[in-house]
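Sample entry (337 residues):
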Amino acid sequence: MAAWDFLPFHPHPLCRGRHAQTVASTLPLIRLPPNRATLRFVALADGDQLALHDDQPAAWQPGNRASLMVHGLGGSHASGYMRRIAAKLNGIGVRTFRLDLRGCGAGFGFAKQPYYGGCSDDLAATVRRVGELCPGSPLSLIGFSLGANVVLKLLGELRGRPLAGVDHAMAISPPIDLERSSQSLLQGFNRVYDRYFVATLMRRMRRQAIRVPDSPAARFRERPRSLFEFDDRFTAPTWGFSGARDYYRQCSSLALLGQIEVPTIIITARDDPFIPYKAIESAKLSANVALHATPGGGHLGFIAGRNGDPDRHWLDWRVVDCHRALNTRQSCNAQLN
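Predicted structure, serialized as tokens:
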């Protein structure tokens, strides 16, 4: 798949460097749109439920494009990047669905099991639910960070089998090698992020243990010293893996990237502090996968200087660019038919 001719990314003068970009990505640089989504639920085979936030533009019609967005570690439907991009896609007529992975966001209390980096079955169930809500509509998948790994894993597992209208995907800052990303969090300044992730996960675990007393979270009392230790002691055994390394090996999308048959764009920064770029650079990609790597941008950062976009969020507008192109192609195909 040919690379997209994106507007180049040039970092904002006040946000130079991987850590400045990564931290700035969490700040409210623009006013976030109000949340007016319709809350829906996705029933899973084991009895858990996922929350799904449906933003439908007023002019949207059955058959028009829809997009399903999946957040990253510690995130939810309310994460800034999810809200911003959903609103911008709504502005060009795309109906968006923001997924809360198990126990996250509005889904808190509706799932006993925790989410993890290999939950492609959960994503497939959500895609089918969106297909029921939007019959005949083409569907884009957009994953961010850990959610991007889940998206890529699902696409690789499909092996060409169609799934409820999915015809395009975007993976933003994906940790395609979970073990290498976990180990990178133990190095230097990255330990600050590692402690943040652990603290976020443990707060969620404590709330989950109170809300759902028979959940696995209620049986986990020791505070881990790192994300690796958390996955080794909790995530892996909860999902039947022998340990963190077994979990990472089986759930990383790296080995599946060469099997993807849905047109897919990976956007990442070479200076991402969590994701060693060498893992992506050396990956065997399918001909259907295009890689766009910027020199800077950090992790889900991409805070740009003046470049002609309506605001500083370079990444948001590249997602919009892709969907504008998809809408144009869909319109042309409709006219030809």
